[in-house]
Amino acid sequence: MRRRGFLAAGFAGFLAGCDRIAQSARGGDLLRAAEGWHKTAQRALNPPGALAPEFTRADISPFFRGNGTINPTNGDYQAHLAAGFADWRLRVTGLVERPLELSLAELRALPQRTQITRHDCVEGWSAIGEWTGPQLAALLDAAGVLPAARFAVFRCADELDGAMYYESVDLVDARHPQTIVAHSLNGAPLPVRNGAPLRMRIERQLGYKHAKYLTGIEMVSSLDGIGGGRGGHWEDRGYQWYAGI
Amino acid sequence: MRRHTLTTRLWHWLSLPCLVVLFMSGLNISNAHPWLYWGEWGFAPEHAWIALPRFPEWMTIPGRYSLAQARAWHLLAAWPFALLLLFAWIAMLANRHFARDIATNRRDWRPRAVLADVRAHLRLDFDHAGHARGRYNFLQRLSYGLVLGVVLPGMIATGIAISPGMGPSFGWLVELVGGRQSARSLHFILAWGLFAFFVVHIALVLLTNPWRQLRDMVTGGRRDAA
Fold first, then answer.
1. Which residue stretches of chain B have pLDDT < 70?
2. Which domain, by its residues, includes B141?
3. Residue B216 belongs to what H/E stretch?
4. Which chain A residue lies closest to B174 (C-alpha atoms)?
5. A121 and A216 inside one domain
6. Inter-chain CB proximity B63 and A203 less than 8 Å
7. Same structural domain for residues A13 and A91?
8. CATH number of the structural domain spanning residue A203
9. A88 within 8 A of A197, measured Cβ to Cβ
10. Of B20, B50, B52, B186, which residue is the least packed, with the fewest Cβ within 10 Å?
């Protein structure tokens, strides 16, 4: 009996220790450092331009689930929805030579990429869909990215948990061939739950990186001072900024 | 000669906290979406082959639902776990621990020999052939071999297959296991397989002079004293 009590106490102590490590400054740094090790290892093993697996039409899942915000009620989103997003604009700003402001028609007139990919949510589920839109790299080239720019910040129209949703990636993912500004899912305009009228596709990372209801792309040199400073809505709530894991 | 080499003991005790953290943070992650699927996709209960129970807080790290923190623990502990396993395999092949103590030969697999070993285990007689010389018996070799060669590497392989960032170079691995959701299902099944091994492992230690077993796994013990 005493032996069992000893084991239970040891186990409880182990759990309490885990909590203390997570709450200490150095423990928190260690937990975050592992994200960097994964990023380094994944990028070493997967060349910068290597593509995420693409599928055939037969593989498309019968439904594409929406998560997070599935119908924005803040701001003038509902008015834009009622107007068929005729006045929706995507702004490319920040550390660029020529800021851009593009309508949906202008985005559709650019060279398009269509890809059938698997979307992996951080919660664990997956869905497969066919996405179409211009490559982000083409927009960045048109705007002329300044050398000081290190991150692309995605600005969104939806408010979630009292904060405007936003996301960010570095230039490796921003310039990846499969990183597109999607306006279509399975050959039709994006449904509202999936981010109408525009959403990012960051195919080698988890779903929360794929910013929906996209209004702007801002090139920045640092993520400090944007939102909570960790590079994204969920990152500010403790999730990994590098979400290839 | 030592019963357990220093490398075996280091691997054993350093891997233990890693596996506890991985398992318990994994149960927290499971609570985020407690359905498992086969194939590449799956996102709703009607596609699931199993609906999992919600694992209570005393079973999870952290001790409350937090997908963000559980992932941080899981992704941290995966590193020492994987590197230790690699180290263990290199050591085990180099010092011939695998060939000498764990690998089975064709004679071990003769039905009569297997049956005899099973019967001896059912009688809780662990001092039959093999064990007297301080060697592992057939079922021991088989279970250690399966854990070291299949279950533990399988945890790493299925973990890689779940990671979207590994898709470009390791798409073949995802296909090998039948898709990302299959990899997730196998990750879960292997984790519980490992837990089952853990339970049997502890039970057999308790049945066979636990304090000597524990002492030998710490100090190394002596093979001829077994």
1. 128-134, 224-226
2. 6-225
3. helix B210-219
4. A53
5. yes
6. no
7. no
8. 3.90.420.10
9. yes
10. B50
Instruction: Tell me, rounded to whole angstroms, the distance of Cα A119 from its chain centroid.
Output: 11
Report how many domains make up chain A: 2
* Token pair in block for residue B110: 């003769």
Residue B73 lies in a domain: yes
The answer as to whether B1 is a domain residue is no
Determine contact, residues A178/B164, Cβ cutoff 8 Å.
no
Cα separation, B22 vs A226, in Å, equals 33
A216/A174 same-domain check? yes
- Is the omega angle on the peptide bond into residue A197 within 30 degrees of 0, that is, cis? yes
Residue in chain A closest to B44 (alpha carbons) equals: A125
ipTM comes to 0.94
Cα(A119)–Cα(B45) distance, integer angstroms:
17
* Average pLDDT, rounded, for chain A: 95
Side chain identity at residue A163, one-letter code:
A
Residue A4's domain comprises 1-45
pLDDT in tens, chain A (245 residues): 466 677 778 888 888 888 888 888 888 889 889 999 999 999 999 998 899 999 999 999 999 999 999 999 999 999 999 999 999 999 999 999 999 999 999 999 999 999 999 999 999 999 999 999 999 999 999 999 999 999 999 999 999 999 999 999 999 999 999 999 999 999 999 999 999 999 999 999 999 999 999 999 999 999 999 999 999 999 999 999 999 99
Q: Where are the beta strands (DSSP E) in A59-213?
A: 89-94, 100-103, 113-120, 126-133, 151-160, 163-170, 180-182, 184-185, 188-189, 199-201
Nearest to A57 by CA among A128, A153, A139: A128
Tell me which residue in A22, A61, A124 faces B32 most closely, judged by beta carbons.
A124
B44 touches chain A (CB under 8 A): yes
Which residues from chain A sit within 8 angstroms of residue B165, using beta carbons? 38-39, 42, 46, 204-205, 242-245
CATH number of the CATH domain containing B125: 1.20.950.20
Shared domain for A68 and A25, answered yes or no, is no
Q: A144 and A64, same structural domain?
A: yes
Say what the pTM is.
0.94
Residues in A closer than 8 angstroms to B68, CB to CB, are: 234, 237-239
